[in-house]
Specification:
By secondary structure, this protein is of the alpha+beta class. The chain has helices at about 20-35, 90-105, 110-135, 145-155, and strands at about 5-10, 40, 55-60, 65-70, 75-85, 140. The longest helix is centred in the C-terminal third of the chain and has 26 residues, at about 110-135. It is elongated and about 55 Å long. The chain starts with 5 loop residues before the first strand and ends with a helix.
Length: about 160
């Protein structure tokens, strides 16, 4: 029986040199929300008909996002690699907006925070749509899953 969802997600900690308390909080929330509700269905058919649930390991290698997909028993199922060139600007923009947002939360009025938060959400949504597009034909994900995966992709890009 198909169970197209992620039951565990890990990040390649070797690629993460540093992260602030704010970023660590974002990572934890993204993982918690992702595991609570997601749709993740690799499109490749497997001889034994395996269709989930999945364990996912994310890493960045040679400017490529590597999604290592495993079965529930942790045996390897497949690896999908995506070039990250099209994500450079969305990641850079998202980091800039998040930095402004985190600064505003500490010192600004709600009237100042709201437009920054709206811009942050808009950038996040656009990047999630781009990720869904890049996964077309490889993995079917819903919008919320794509948003959370983009957050984790950003965490993997922090270099200190």
């Amino acid at each position: 029986m198909a169970d197209p969802r992620i039951i565990d997600v890990t990040l390649d900690e070797r690629t993460i040199l540093w992260r602030s308390a704010d970023i660590e909080q974002e990572r934890q929330v993204a993982i918690t929300d992702l595991l609570a509700a997601n749709h993740f269905a690799p499109r490749r058919r497997h001889a034994d008909g395996y269709a989930g649930p999945y364990r996912l390991h994310l890493s960045v290698q040679e400017n490529r996002l590597v999604l290592e997909i495993r079965r529930a028993d942790e045996s390897h199922l497949e690896t999908i690699v995506l070039g990250l060139a099209r994500f450079r600007r969305p990641i850079r923009d998202y980091f800039a907006i998040c930095d402004s947002y985190f600064q505003a939360v500490r010192a600004a009025s709600p009237q100042h925070i709201e437009p920054i938060d709206m811009a942050r959400r808009a950038a996040h949504n656009e990047a999630a749509e781009l990720l869904q597009e890049r996964l077309t034909g490889k993995i079917e994900v819903d919008f919320d899953t794509a948003r959370r995966l983009f957050t984790l992709l950003c965490v993997l890009h922090i270099k200190g």
